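About this split. The held-out portion is used to measure sequence recovery: a designer receives only the structure tokens and must propose an amino acid at every position. Recovery is the fraction of positions where the proposal matches the reference. Here is one held-out target exactly as it appears in the evaluation file.
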């Protein structure tokens, strides 16, 4: 068997070296060695440079949003509210719709839409924004008309921003009255029931920008009087409150009747981060609650105040900002003044919001008194349909201090897919992050009320960000990744956010809360994770196992990790170089004439997904392939093409060194005798700069793997 194996191995080796020409290629590289410069890659320098470029790109996005906020606040300042305002606007549901007499319907004038590559080939209008309203908001409500009329002032700013920074994508203003102004304008399609459920006020970016981080304890009455519809409304209320919380918030839920119980016993006496997993877990438990017994509120209140006090006093825990108790009940027999006096007065550090469930008003004054004497808000919820509007009110109260002080905090969301926005249209399923900022009313007479007008935002596709850390600078097996200060991945080659259901690709439920430790699992002691969450700059090396070929084989490598923060954002950037291959770059000095001659050979191509030249900004360049763009750049036919000179130089060098392979392969192909060596079909090579060459040994119709 050994003799067979050796013979087989030897045969295979000689066939492969002969037909691939690998020995010739080695010799060609050896010949040019004296003229080469070999440069060692400095990972820390690289990661700092990438981070600076990313920071300046993200800063441009922030500046665009700041210009919109300023314009919106000024427009509001100069707008007199007019309750009988008549105003026609572009309603994204109704645009281009005609009635039976072939006239455009009201609010649905002609709106020119053209496909735009920059917006995933959707039909858009880049001169105007248009307005989307959820089905439950009346489209000619005076509040809506005044808001829409006032925010018309944003149109020129949207257009100007897009001209200044062509890498901007969607820009928008979500109003606290419920309308959503989106640029560029699109046609919005309802779901199969004819309903538009998208409400900008429920989106993560809106809620995060409108309020600061918060610690919340939800107290729900599960005594016997809550049976039936009241219990359903209470459950829906809790679920809605949970949906307004995000990664930066902390929460717990207490149910009370004769005694107090935490609905998740493991979370007794503490607050947990309101990330997706915890929120879903709470929702399941809330669903199982049953009403029985007699309600005693004071124990539940006492318990809640204790938890919040503990979190507040142990530095570094919780949201470090707002604290609130949400009391959900069908009535309070007394006002529990003693509890508040002991735990919350005179500072009133904890706001108390009360939700009175049902139509009963006997005990309403007590419930109202509790909220009003603890800097909270009181609302009565008598049907399931009222829940959404009433729950949203608490956000306005929590955002008041920010409004009064005019703190325009810049918010960056975790990565998410833009599918919610364009569920009705073709999915390119891009991961993005949103930068958002609140818009406040500057009118002097209402300044102390702290009126939030809405939130302005813009989407940043993470793909654009990663273009600034190109693969070719990182060498074989090198990659870059981004994570947030909550430890979640924004972008990583091992992040697989989609799964296949039948033929459709769907996002996994927790795709935006995948922790760094789940992909860089060799980081057992979380040294890398902790350093990156804290925004440190540093270096670390680890032995890793890397799956290649879709997980069929594993390589054992030693990787060097370099990381730093991206200032002005909650993100950190990591760059990974692998020892050996990834440490060096070859720099050859090839003249343009010599290189061009070899680049124009027929069987040569460049990695099209790499960016040798920027072709996606100027419409005239979009039709060029990367190879065509490089050639035009070198011949000077397109003087305004921006190209990466270092990479183009490497390509020229590779083209010249590998040119003799074509002749070698052709000679072999001509002298091949079909009988003795059937089975060799094709030879190809790829270089570090992304240049590929190939040659066929058989007619193209005979290739076994097309």
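Reference sequence for scoring:
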């Amino acid at each position: 068997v050994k003799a067979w194996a050796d013979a087989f191995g030897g045969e295979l080796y000689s066939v492969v070296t002969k037909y691939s020409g690998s020995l010739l290629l080695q010799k060609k590289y050896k010949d040019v060695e004296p003229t080469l410069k070999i440069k060692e890659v400095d990972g820390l320098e690289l990661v700092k440079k990438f981070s600076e470029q990313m920071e300046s790109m993200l800063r441009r996005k922030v500046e665009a949003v700041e210009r919109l906020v300023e314009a919106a606040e000024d427009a509001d300042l100069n707008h007199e509210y007019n309750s009988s305002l008549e105003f026609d606007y572009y309603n994204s549901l109704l645009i281009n719709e005609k009635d039976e007499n072939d006239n455009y319907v009201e609010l649905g004038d002609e709106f020119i839409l053209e496909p735009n590559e920059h917006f995933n080939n959707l039909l858009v209008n880049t001169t105007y924004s248009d307005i989307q309203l959820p089905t439950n908001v009346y489209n000619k409500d005076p509040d809506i008309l005044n808001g829409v009329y006032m925010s018309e002032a944003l149109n020129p700013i949207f257009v100007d921003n897009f001209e200044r920074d062509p890498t901007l994508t969607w820009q928008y203003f979500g109003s606290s009255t419920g309308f959503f102004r989106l640029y560029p304008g699109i046609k919005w399609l309802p779901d199969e029931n004819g309903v538009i459920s998208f409400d900008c006020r429920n989106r993560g970016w809106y809620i995060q920008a409108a309020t600061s981080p918060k610690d919340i304890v939800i107290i729900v009455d599960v005594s016997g009087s809550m049976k039936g519809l009241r219990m359903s409304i209470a459950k829906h209320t809790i679920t809605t409150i949970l949906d307004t919380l995000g990664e930066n918030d902390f929460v717990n839920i207490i149910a009370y009747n004769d005694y107090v119980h935490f609905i998740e016993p493991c979370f007794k006496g503490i607050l947990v981060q309101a990330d997706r997993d915890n929120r879903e877990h709470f929702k399941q438990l809330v669903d199982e609650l049953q009403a029985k017994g007699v309600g005693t509120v004071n124990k539940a209140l006492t318990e809640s105040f204790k938890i919040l006090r503990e979190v507040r006093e142990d530095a570094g825990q919780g949201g470090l900002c707002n604290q609130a108790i949400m009391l959900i009940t069908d009535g309070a027999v007394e006002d529990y003044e003693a509890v508040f006096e002991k735990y919350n007065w005179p500072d009133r550090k904890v706001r108390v919001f009360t939700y009175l469930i049902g139509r009963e008003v006997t005990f309403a004054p007590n419930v109202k008194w509790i909220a009003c004497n603890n800097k909270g808000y009181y609302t009565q919820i008598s049907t399931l349909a009222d829940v959404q509007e009433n729950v949203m009110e608490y956000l306005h109260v929590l955002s008041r201090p920010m409004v009064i002080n005019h703190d325009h905090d810049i918010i960056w969301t975790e990565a998410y897919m833009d599918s919610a926005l364009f569920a009705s249209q073709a999915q390119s399923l891009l991961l993005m992050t949103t930068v958002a900022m609140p818009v406040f009313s500057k009118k002097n007479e209402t300044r102390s009320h702290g009126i939030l007008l809405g939130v302005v935002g813009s989407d940043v596709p993470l793909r654009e960000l990663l273009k600034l850390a190109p693969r070719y600078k990182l060498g074989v097996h090198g990659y870059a990744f981004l994570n947030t200060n909550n430890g979640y991945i924004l972008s990583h080659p091992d992040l697989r956010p989609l799964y296949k259901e039948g033929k459709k690709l769907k996002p996994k439920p927790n795709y935006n809360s995948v922790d760094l430790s789940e992909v860089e699992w060799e980081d057992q002691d979380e040294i890398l994770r902790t350093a990156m969450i804290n925004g440190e700059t540093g270096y670390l090396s680890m032995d890793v196992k890397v799956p290649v070929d879709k997980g069929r084989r594993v390589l054992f490598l030693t990787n060097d990790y370099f990381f730093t923060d991206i200032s002005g954002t909650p993100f950190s950037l990591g760059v990974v170089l692998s020892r050996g291959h990834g440490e060096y770059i070859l720099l050859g000095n090839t003249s343009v004439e010599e290189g061009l001659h070899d680049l124009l050979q027929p069987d040569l191509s460049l990695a099209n997904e790499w960016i040798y030249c920027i072709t996606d900004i100027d419409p005239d360049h979009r039709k060029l392939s990367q190879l065509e763009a490089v050639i035009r750049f070198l011949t000077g036919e397109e003087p305004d093409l921006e190209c990466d000179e270092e990479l183009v130089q490497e390509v020229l060098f590779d083209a010249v060194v590998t040119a003799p392979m074509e002749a070698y392969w052709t000679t072999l192909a001509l002298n091949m005798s079909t009988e003795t060596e059937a089975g060799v079909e094709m030879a190809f090579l790829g270089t570090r700069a992304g240049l590929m060459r190939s040659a066929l040994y058989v007619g193209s119709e005979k290739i076994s793997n097309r």
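Annotator remark: The chain has 19 helices and 28 strands.
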